[in-house]
Amino acid sequence: MGTVGILGWLLPLLLQAVPQAAGAQPCSPKYFGRDAMVCVCNATYCDTLDPVVLPAPGTYVKYESSKAGKRLERSEGSFQHSLLHTPGIEYNLIRLPMACSDFSTHPYSYDDVPHDFELKHFKLAEEDVKMKIPLLHRASAMSRRPLSLYASPWTSPAWLKSNEDVRGKGTLKGQAGDKYHKTWANYFIKFLDEYAKHNVTFWAVTVQNEPHTVLFTPPQFPTITFTAAQQRDFIVHDLGPALTRSPHRTRLIILDDQRIHLLHWAKAVLGNATAARYVAGVGVHWYLDSVIPASCSLEATHRLFPDHFLLYTEACSGFLTMRFSVSLGCWERGDRYSHSILTVLNHFVAGWTDWNLALDTEGGPNWVKNYVDSPIIVDSSKDIFYKQPMFYHLGHFSKFIPEGSRRVGLHSSRRCLFCQLEHVAVLRPDGALVLVVLNRFGWDVPFGIRDPAIGFIETVAPANSIQTYLWHQQ
To answer: Is 314 a catalytic residue?
Structure first.
């Protein structure tokens, strides 16, 4: 499972590869402390959701999860007039490592024959052919929405790196435009070619996973380091032209690293007109978000480069901890997911990707022992898996906000308690409105929702809860 990376092998679980009864099935709870609850799934039972059906005009549906034990619990109501396969949470954005990542069981590349500049020995790994590709086919067959796949490289073959090892921090040998850089660019095309032979196409690739986070990764972590200027030149002279010449319509994403680098990186790469023509968007990781406000990074970058999308390409909890990499049933870790998603959606980010959606009870496998938490924890010794609060927090967005939705304006009364809550409103392509409300406080917060086209809802956000409201204006 580690070799597949983000979302890949878990998607069949998300889309429920277990026998289904008619109608939604409730959570089977298990507690790991008073407020630490997971939903237990096995080969014969797992909680499910009904398909999202728009309510009748003048009514709304509400889905609520809470620290107290609710998990996407559905209810209905009416406005007061005054003057992802549908049983799952419908993820459709999947990030896949190109060859190994730290969450592989071992380090490897697709061409370990030294000096093979023509890539005659390029070959997908067993992990691709026997795990990633079959699971992607199953996921695609089960999913109601088309899947958008994007790939990220961690390392090149050792013989292209300055340290001569797929492990550890090294740069590409030489400089942009030379045989090392052109070979690395062609490696991307070979990867896309080989997956296309298996009827798998990629919406995008990132240039490099975490090219500049050299202080926060383990010393044996597989990576290639780039400065922003080096990445710009590689795009201009090598990767951009290679993608353009190829038969693939794959988009290019830069950075794929922390947002402390975002503004500088965007200026250095997108400020170059040639590089900017090859680039579709900028990838961001969440690990150092507390260091710089969203307004000074995300919003500032969007204002300068509004034609290039911003996408959160990696997030996880439990990283860099000496204890409790996996914390079963931890509500606060789900809270942090929703807080991040709400914050970035309100600052021009188009999507948000978890890192490992499923791991084992240790938080791996991970060959550099970089164990972390994930929304699904698999206990293979008992043939069960646990759906953590993080899973349901993600579902409050992924289930109800499909691709093509647009964020809309939302105004809070100065006197209302709604101002204490975190929220986002979006308009779906089908014309429905979605409002997600997060209450991270330990007390209930009453508030109202007024839609001038429909009416008014008087409601409450319970302590430590997240709610999704859905209604139609027609």
So the answer is: yes
